[in-house]
Structure formats: structure tokens, C-alpha cells
Specification:
about 280 residues; mainly beta; 10-stranded antiparallel beta sheet
Length: about 280
């Protein structure tokens, strides 16, 4: 009961308007642009579908949509109120300009890893994909998020490097430059869906399921203080920062996934607080 009361209190800014909007839905957070996380509210009991995916809707009528870094436009949203007819909408998704950095003279082994490393990466990707497929009914996504660590932002969402003319995967999170051993906290409540101490790219890795397909991804940790299945609350420590995996220095990488789509954690959370 205390957790439910806390969740209701934290969600209050998203629920400031009437519980049952007169329109098919209202957006409580986010906008229709690449990398955005949208939190909507509709009539409790309504059915919501986005791009053909049936979305989970909370008892209060809350739902969440993630627009990928490379989301195409337009996108389709359909809402059917209890006993009503479907209301369908088409939304244009605004494009964002990404920072692309061409780099040359990189040793080939860093551009194309050897086969044994590729096999390891493929096996780890299956574990990650399984964790990201979760669609639980918890509604922690509705709480205003906080920064898991405070410090200088050293990497931004959406940037991409082109190594020796070969485009690599874009950067799907925000990097915070903090020393090894800095406590990392949960940006919102949820359930630990993955806790791996030594993945090839990301080293110490923790996923937090915030509900309805939304998960935080916290990587390069030097120590994990949680395990799969743990229920955690916003601000609770999950481990210590580090420089594990493939990194050039100690930092926290924090990303937000909505199923297979990557969204901008920095944009959803707001300005970095000033360090005391």
C-alpha cells in the first residue's frame, strides 16, 4: 500500500488534468519527434494500438509510446473507448539532426571484431533481446524520472561514428562522466529484468523494467547490487559506475528502450542538476 501511495504521488504531475479526457486521449509527456517518449492518458478501459501493436493501458488509462531515433513518418495511433468505435490518427514524426563523426585510420580489429568475438556478441544479443521484450503491467513509467548520476554529460543520444568509411551503430544513450565507484541510482521504480556483470560491449549491465515495454539500460558498471526479479524504487542504488566493457574511460551510459525502439533519456528527464 505504501508503494502504491508513493507511485500515485510521483505520478501526480502527469495526472493533473481530469482522469477521463474528453478527447480520445491527451499527451502528458513527450512530442511527436524522433527519440521522444510519449506518455498518454485515455479513458480507463480503452484499447490503444500504435503501428499495429496493441499497447498495455493502466487501470488509470495511462499508456506509453517510444519513437525510435530513426522513426519513420507518419505513424498510426488508434484508440477505442469502451463501447465506442475506433478513433484513428496519423501523426507526422519530426526529424532530428544527429551528430555524425567520420574517423579514419582505425585498426581493422576494432571495426570488424574476430569471429569468436562476433559469436559472443551474438549470444549476448539474444539475452538482451529477451529482456527487452517484456511487457509488464507496472506503471512506473508514469513517474517523472530523475538522473541516475550527476556529472558532466560526455556523450549524447543519437550521435554516430563512421569508422574507416563504415557506419557503426548510433549512440543510444546519454553518457555521464563520473569516477569509478560512483553510486548509480534508479531513475524510476521498476523490476530488474537483466543483471550481467561482464557483457562484451557494455560490461556490467543492468536493465530496469519500468512497465509497458519501457526499460532503463545502465552499463559499464563496476559493481552490481541488484539481481533479476528485484523490485526497486526511484533513487535506490543499483550498483557502482565503472569502465567495464568497451570504453575509453569511466562513465555511466544510460539509455531508455521501448521494446526494440531507442528513445532519448536526456530529453525525457530534463536538465542535469548542478553538482553540490
Amino acid at each position: 500500500m505504501r508503494r502504491r501511495a508513493l507511485l500515485a504521488l510521483l505520478a501526480a504531475p502527469l495526472l493533473a488534468q481530469a482522469a477521463a479526457p474528453s478527447a480520445p486521449y491527451v499527451l502528458r509527456a513527450g512530442s511527436w519527434e524522433q527519440g521522444s517518449l510519449l506518455v498518454g492518458e485515455t479513458t480507463p478501459g480503452a484499447a490503444v494500438s500504435f503501428e499495429g501493436r496493441k499497447l498495455t493501458v493502466s487501470p488509470e488509462g495511462l499508456f506509453v509510446i517510444g519513437l525510435d531515433r530513426d522513426a519513420k513518418s507518419p505513424v498510426a495511433l488508434s484508440i477505442t473507448a469502451p463501447g465506442g468505435k475506433p478513433v484513428s490518427e496519423s501523426h507526422k514524426v519530426a526529424r532530428r539532426k544527429w551528430d555524425v563523426q567520420p574517423l579514419t585510420g582505425i585498426a581493422p580489429k576494432y571495426v570488424d571484431p574476430p569471429q569468436d568475438v562476433q559469436d559472443r556478441i551474438a549470444a549476448e544479443q539474444k539475452v538482451i533481446a529477451a529482456a527487452r521484450s517484456r511487457d509488464t503491467a507496472i506503471s512506473d513509467f508514469a513517474t517523472p524520472f530523475v538522473w541516475p548520476a550527476t556529472g558532466r554529460i560526455s556523450g549524447i543520444f543519437g550521435s554516430q561514428r563512421v569508422l574507416n568509411g563504415k557506419p557503426k551503430s548510433p549512440h543510444y544513450g546519454v553518457d555521464v562522466a563520473v569516477p569509478v565507484g560512483t553510486p548509480i541510482v534508479a531513475p524510476a521504480g521498476g523490476v530488474i529484468s537483466l543483471a550481467e556483470p561482464d557483457l562484451y560491449f557494455t560490461g556490467g549491465t543492468v536493465f530496469i523494467d519500468h512497465g509497458h515495454g519501457l526499460q532503463s539500460v545502465m552499463v559499464h558498471l563496476s559493481r552490481l547490487d541488484v539481481k533479476v526479479g528485484d523490485r526497486i524504487e526511484q533513487g535506490q542504488p543499483i550498483g557502482l559506475s565503472g569502465a567495464t566493457g568497451r570504453v575509453t574511460g569511466p562513465h555511466l551510459h544510460w539509455g531508455l528502450y521501448w521494446f526494440g525502439d531507442r528513445v532519448d533519456a536526456q530529453k525525457h528527464t530534463g536538465p542535469m542538476p548542478a553538482n553540490p
